[in-house]
Amino acid sequence: MTLEELKTRCEKEGFKYAYGKFEEETEPPHLITITIDTDNFMADNKVYHKNVPIQLDYTYIYKNVEEQNKIENKILGDIAWNKTEETYLQDEKVWQVSYFFEI
Question: pTM of this prediction?
Fold first, then answer.
């Protein structure tokens, strides 16, 4: 999967999606992707296999099991992922779950 394919999958499933941040204020639910520390396979001063770790944040106001199932079964269904517990962001008055995987 590429970042472009991830974007396509998210939008196909009906989610508002952005890389990094939305340019305009966007009401949840939505998905935001960022890349985090790389974990490349290297030897002899050369990268042999590039791993791009991704964090996909699902932000919402009201719990929607169907939406989470779309993320887990349709968007991320063919890749290995982990997720955080649900966290309430008091300042923004929203809930957030982060998914972690590599592309």
Answer: 0.88
